[in-house]
Fold this sequence. Notes:
This protein is of the alpha/beta class. The protein has three domains: 5-116, Ribonuclease H-like superfamily/Ribonuclease H (Nucleotidyltransferase, domain 5, 2-Layer Sandwich); 121-208; 213-340, no CATH class. Helix content is 55%, strand content 13%. It has helices at residues 37-44, 63-71, 95-108, 122-153, 159-164, 167-174, 179-208, 213-218, 226-236, 245-251, 276-292, 294-306, 309-330, 336-340, and strands spanning 5-11, 15-21, 27-34, 51-57, 76-79, 113-114, 258-261, 264-268. Helix 2 (63-71) links the parallel strand 4 (51-57) and strand 5 (76-79). It is globular, with a radius of gyration of 25 Å.
Amino acid sequence: MNETLFCGVDLHSDNAVYVITDEQDRQLFSKRLPNDLAVVLGALEPYRDRLKAVAVESTYNWYWLVDGLRDYDYPVCLANPAKMEQYDGIKEANDLTDAAFVTHLLRLGVLPTGYIYPREDRPVRDLLRRRTLLVRYRTSLKQSLQNMVVRQTGRSLGWRKVRDLDNEARAELLGDDDCLPFVADQQVELIELLDERIKRFEQKVLEHAHLRSAYECLLTLPGVGVILGLTIMLETGQIGRFKRVGDYTSYCRCVRATRSSNGKKKGSNNSRNGNAYLSWAFVEAVHHAIRCCPAAKKFYDRKMAKRNGALATKALAAKWTKAAYYMMTRQESFDLARVFG
């Protein structure tokens, strides 16, 4: 009898727990295996022809397993752990029960799944993500240098002005002791080194990025340049996977994550659920947009007068995500009248 089987995987950094069940939820296989594709394929081989799907928990290291299984024609899906919640009163929970729970949801057909990003586009997207790490590190160094000057002098001075000072002027600014001028020298060198490395990353991205028609549309969005356009294009993937514009805005972390009842706030939901890189990209875009787009600046000022700068930025970013969604969906350029009415 060829019963349909289901497999759930609770994936960790160096091992994973695999549970295979039949249509009656009876466990036919449950074992912890090392993260070795050959070992995994050998363990699954006896069940291969009857497996309806293998559900892999979407952790940071799923690439090797999902790609490896798909290379051998296993039907694979990504389980979204942010949307899975087991019964709160469960007595004991461990890796085995977690894998069994994934398998159970898979069998019932109610497993929340994630998007398997195309393998051929992942290297360029991950290259852009590593560039972002360098940008953030560079920003922290600039802020640290400027804060040191403020502490010592009581006045603000941009890092470039500190860089342009000679040794005597830096000593006069930061004090006779050579410790702080030494710190300033080293941080300026690191910032300039990061500038050069970031440019290398950008050149490599431009060499390998496969530009889609959506990219040209995104460049018409105020505040979006080459790098932000590439980031939005690559982090979004196929825009068709978002059924509604609100889904895309939520994925970009540009919606409220509050829980209320009878007009009163009762708590907060998972505000970190979504794509952090898209959230960063749209916030960066609106920071540039309020300097070059009068309508965006007017909207931002109106929101800031009512609440604060952070909420005003997010509100404008939400508008930008909606505009980007329709631009990518319809292959249209930015239309200011549609955004602000």
